């Protein structure tokens, strides 16, 4: 009898946690679990047999993270096929003599911290195709796709898995209130997975058995596909360097009975569950049959794109009517804000439309720019554009701080990935990078739509005008234009570029991005000396200064250097008039008086 036929006639018990159990057996916490298939196969084999002895009749291969992205992070990408084949072989060997199925475990990909390039759907599918193909070649009976928190990569994995011809279980790890990234709810996910061809639909991980029980009940109402449930053993506690799960095997089994009564046909365990949990599960579920369900299958809703309307207010309100000028000022390294307040007042009087405030630029410690931005708006009466990086806060902290920024009246945000912490001055600081600039823009768009990253309502929209960065100095302008296209699709509404000194590059940028119809403010950083010019050209990433300008700055220092730098900036501004609707000024060394002179030049002429 096939796996699907068995599910229709009896409840099958899955196994429990692999990673946490291997760590409990003495594997170091920093070890790669999947690599154990090659270097400690006897340990993996032992765990499989413990679950089979406990009563599991569906055991998973130790391959959850054996995909190209996770293995590449530790230099094992060339052994991807070998690790998956061996994982399948070990589980197959353990199951010999048992009336059990072997499931190939497939988990989500990872993005390297600080990496902005997003994998396309085709690239993602191909990575999963390699893993699924190796597991199928190794002799698994089915594939389990698990712990996905985003539907798009799960659909890619589902496409690849179905190509093997094996049955596919698609398990989503739902977040708070049964939602996933982007706000989709349990019912919508179940419908999408059924439409995508999943043979079994379910949920795993999460907060614990009670939460998964609620998810199963909701899925059972909208799909007639067999359902799977693999809950965690409750919330973990951190004790003596390890996560400890307190849910007892008896409680776990009691909730599992309710899951079966709600419609689950395949029940196992996720993080924190042990062979003892599975033993109690097998004892309680033995002889149970899948529940008869009353299903009303609704049609999938028409594709809806939730995005905030373009904001034509604030510093962009005059776009197309007169040149818009923004100026960047650095936050102080200490508590004295007098210079930035004074500079903001001078720049406002000169005609500047907004003040940019970076967030710990070059990973150097400076005052927090959200609180400072609020102070500048209050004291100087000019709008601020707060730069927000993905380096310093995790997803939780970013959402909280952005909500606080909205509360304080910050209305413009420039979303950037941020320089890595290692280049800065703070020894021991680490980079977070839960998000990159693309996904941060998505988050900002969600906040504008009045929901957080889980899709939960916030009561109102954040009201942000979302900006993004563009580097016109790269070798391939079309690549940068493609990146900008994705940022605009995610919700960006204006662009500020790296400092640009070459008119040919400006024209190339405008040509490549004309179809996006988005305000672009080219960056202008006035030079002040030959030394300053050579430093920017040779040492600052993203800045390229043409040879003729470097020649003009030769031997120029102090006042002469400032005069020549301003002359070069004015010439660029004059040549760019009519091509762009505004400029983004970055005064060197915080010398706002230089920027003020250029602001007056732009506005008066």
In summary, what is this structure?
This protein has 22 helices and 18 strands. With about 600 residues, it is α/β, with parallel strands linked by helices.
| Assigned CATH architecture of the largest domain | Alpha-Beta Barrel
Largest sheet: 8 strands, parallel
Strand line-up in the sheet with most strands: 1-10-7-6-5-4-3-2
Residue share in helices? 40-55%
* CATH topology heading of the largest domain: TIM Barrel
Total helical segments: 22
Low-confidence stretches: 236-240, 303-312
Average of the residue pLDDT scores: 91
Taken as a percent bin, the fraction of beta residues is 5-15%
Q: What general outline do the C-alpha atoms trace?
A: elongated
Strand element count: 18
End-to-end Cα distance, whole Å, is 83 Å
- Quickly count the domains: 2
Structural class: alpha/beta
Q: Nearest-angstrom radius of gyration?
A: 28 Å
Name the assembly state.
single chain
CATH class of the largest domain: Alpha Beta
Cofactor: FAD; Zn(2+)
Keywords: FAD, Flavoprotein, Metal-binding, Methyltransferase, Oxidoreductase, Transferase, Zinc
GO molecular function: metal ion binding; methionine synthase activity; methylenetetrahydrofolate reductase [NAD(P)H] activity
InterPro entries: FAD-linked_oxidoreductase-like, HCY_dom, HCY_dom_sf, Mehydrof_redctse-like, Met_Synthase/Corrinoid
């Amino acid at each position: 009898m096939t796996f699907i036929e068995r599910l229709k006639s009896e409840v099958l018990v899955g196994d429990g946690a692999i990673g946490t159990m291997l760590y409990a057996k003495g594997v170091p916490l920093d070890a790669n679990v999947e690599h154990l298939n090659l270097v400690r196969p006897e340990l993996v084999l032992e765990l499989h047999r413990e679950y089979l002895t406990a009563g599991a009749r569906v055991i998973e291969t130790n391959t959850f993270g054996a995909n190209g992205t996770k293995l590449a992070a530790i230099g094992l990408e060339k052994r991807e096929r070998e690790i998956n084949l061996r994982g399948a072989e070990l589980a197959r060997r353990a199951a010999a003599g048992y009336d059990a199925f072997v499931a190939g475990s497939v988990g989500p990909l990872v993005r390297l911290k600080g990496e902005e390039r997003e994998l396309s759907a085709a690239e993602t599918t191909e990575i999963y195709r390699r893993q699924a193909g190796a597991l199928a070649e190794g002799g698994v009976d089915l594939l389990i796709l698990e712990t996905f928190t985003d539907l798009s990569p799960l659909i890619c994995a589902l496409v690849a898995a179905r190509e093997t011809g094996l049955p596919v279980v698609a398990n989503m790890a739902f977040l708070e209130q049964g939602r996933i990234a982007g706000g989709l709810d349990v019912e919508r996910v179940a419908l999408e997975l059924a439409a995508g061809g999943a043979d079994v639909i379910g949920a795993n991980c999460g907060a614990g058995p009670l939460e998964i029980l609620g998810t199963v009940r909701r899925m059972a109402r909208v799909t007639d596909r067999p359902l799977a449930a693999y809950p965690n053993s409750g919330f973990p506690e951190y004790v003596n360097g390890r996560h400890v799960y307190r849910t007892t095997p008896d409680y776990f089994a009691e909730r599992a009975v309710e899951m079966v009564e709600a419609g689950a046909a395949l029940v196992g365990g996720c993080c924190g569950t042990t062979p003892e949990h599975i033993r109690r599960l097998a004892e309680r579920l033995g002889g149970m049959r899948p529940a008869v369900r009353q299903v009303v299958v609704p049609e999938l809703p028409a594709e809806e794109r939730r995005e905030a309307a373009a904001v034509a207010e604030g510093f962009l309100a005059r776009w197309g009517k007169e040149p818009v000028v923004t100026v960047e000022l650095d936050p102080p390294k200490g508590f004295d804000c007098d210079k930035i307040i004074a500079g903001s007042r001078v720049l406002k009087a000169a005609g500047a439309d907004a003040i940019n405030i970076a967030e710990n630029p070059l990973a150097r410690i400076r005052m927090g720019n959200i609180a400072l931005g609020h102070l500048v708006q209050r004291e100087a009466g000019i709008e601020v554009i707060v730069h927000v990086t993905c380096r310093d806060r995790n997803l939780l902290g970013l959402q909280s701080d952005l909500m606080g920024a909205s509360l304080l009246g910050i209305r413009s945000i420039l979303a950037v990935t941020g320089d890595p912490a290692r280049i800065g001055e703070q020894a021991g600081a680490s980079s977070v990078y839960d998000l990159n600039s693309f996904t941060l823009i998505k988050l900002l768009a969600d906040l504008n739509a009045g929901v957080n990253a889980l899709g939960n309502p916030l009561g109102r929209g954040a009201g942000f005008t979302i900006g993004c960065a563009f580097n016109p100095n790269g070798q391939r302008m079309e690549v940068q234009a493609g990146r900008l296209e994705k940022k605009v699709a995610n919700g960006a509404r204006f662009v500020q570029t790296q400092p640009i000194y070459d008119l040919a590059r400006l024209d190339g940028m405008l040509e490549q991005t004309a179809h996006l119809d988005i305000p672009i403010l080219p960056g202008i950083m006035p030079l002040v000396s030959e030394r300053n010019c050579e430093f920017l050209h040779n040492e600052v990433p993203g800045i390229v200064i043409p040879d003729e300008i470097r020649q003009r700055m030769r031997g120029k220092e102090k006042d002469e250097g400032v005069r020549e730098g301003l002359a070069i900036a004015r010439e660029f501004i004059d040549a760019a008039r009519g091509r762009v609707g505004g400029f983004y000024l970055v005064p060197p060394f915080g010398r706002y008086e230089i920027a003020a002179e250029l602001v007056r030049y732009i506005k008066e002429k």
